[in-house]
Design goal:
- The structure holds two protein chains of two kinds.
- Chain A is an all-alpha fold.
- In chain A, about 65% of the residues lie in helices and about 0% in strands.
- By secondary structure, chain B is mostly helical.
- In chain B, strand 1 and strand 2 form a beta hairpin.
- The interface between A and B is large, with 52 and 51 residues.
Chain lengths: ~250, ~325
Amino acid sequence: MILNDALKEYCLRIADNSSILAHRLSEWSGHGPILEEDIAMSNMALDLIGQARGFYSYAATLEGKGRTEDDLAFRRDAREFVNRNLVEQPDHKDFGTAMLRSFLYSCLSYLQFRALMNSKDETISGLSAKAIKEVTYHVRHCGDWVVRLGDGTEESHRRINNSLEELWMYTAELFEQNEVDALLVKEGIAVDLTTLKQDWLNLVDEIFTQAKLTKPAEGGYQSSGGINGMHTEHLGYILAEMQFLPRAYPDAIW
Amino acid sequence: MHFVNRNLANPKQTSNIGMETTLSVEELNKREAEFDAKIAGGKTIEPKDWMPERYRKQLLRMMSQHAHSEVVGMLPEGNWITRAPSLARKAVLLAKVQDEAGHGLYIYSAAETLGMDRSEMIDQLLSGKAKYSSIFNYPTLSWADIGAIGWLVDGAAIVNQTVLAKCSYGPYSRAMLRICKEENFHNKQGYQIMAYLMRGTKEQRDMAQDAMNRFWWPALMMFGPSDTNSPNSADLMKWKVKLHSNDDLRQRFIDRTVPQAEAIGLRIPDDKLKWNESTRHYEFGEINWAEFNQVISGNGPCNKLRMKQRTDAHNNGAWVREAAAAYSAKKAASKK
């Protein structure tokens, strides 16, 4: 694998994560539990779309085939998407699931962007410096909700606990790496995710303690393979919806 | 959390609710005269000022209806966020719908100064007691409908709200000033969507014209019944809550919108539409008031769906609001 291809793949990964999670959050627009949360969830989705656009554009530039950010978002099929499977999980309009999903992902994203601010690739470090401010807020906002729901009522505790049981199987995968990482870490462009695992656990544990939540026991099924294009059944539906117009009207400009 | 303490046990600045009952007839007349003079002199009425009960009720009705319209109005456009055709369009639409949530919040807060809590206003919406703009009871069937709504619906709203920004009730007038700025951006993004479609493929142009055909008349209905049939108009005009008649505003909207449609090649679906050189206004065909009356009385294509969506969101969020309140109470107790 040559460096340029690895870097493009790395950018696609960040962009896909942001884009798919933004999509899930945007499903809430108009359906939140209170207006303030409608606004907050849209805010987070907008931040993520901005991140996706930045990293897709850079990926397109690295590829050098004249494709655009939208070609990468709207004209690739599910097996080409390299997001972590956590972000594509549905929440079935359960607010706790939505908050927990964003919290678990944002903790990683926060640590990753923080490290990538020192990337030897200037575009990556620049995009990361912008994203870190946004993701810091996501961690705090979603973490606050995990605590409120975990330590709120009996019902809310039961529900957020169920969400945790459902989502935990997608957390080990957050740290999966492949040859892309190996190459870029060596060049000082990417961060070795194994070095972030303990910090991630600390962030999560701190919130779970306040939320009176216990992590599910180890040894259950753990999802794998998002970065290699192995996804859950949900991604296909997201893309069917998201890509409908550009696919149905391939010559149109919107 | 804003919502946790929002009940009447902990009131914000509210108006003089119920004070009239203690006033003598002479005193009441004197206050009404002062109130009328203040309005005639172009002064704004503020929450702490005395106001006739009918003024308060009419404003509360208008403002809560306006806030509900913002919130219900999120639904038809929200319907296309996940299918927006590019990342940029998705971001713009998401931001627009987010603005509407913000407008709703802002107007609910302004309306609360008249003595009703937000949760009570929302209960009135969900029980069907309070109305919202009839335009949101039409479906969004294609991407072009998002353009049509931004351009026509927000365009009509701007005409209404620009005037409301000069209305006599201070909190409402200030809310409108702020909101109008954002509505202008909404209007432009809608028109831009239409302009892109009209210079696109034949399928895109057909999509745009179809949206125009479906949204033109409902947009005209947004200004409300003709003045001869508008029951609240006389009082509202006397109090400078309303500064122009429904028909005047409708005409203003038509006059400014027709040239915009022509500029991008969209046809107005009205055979009677023509420019009158002597009045300097467009003449237009008869609005289908029977349809309007059907839709506002609950029998439009999406009335049931919109209420279901709002009710579901409210009910699905109940446990979240309860948890936040419980958590907040625990924290407050542990501080004591």
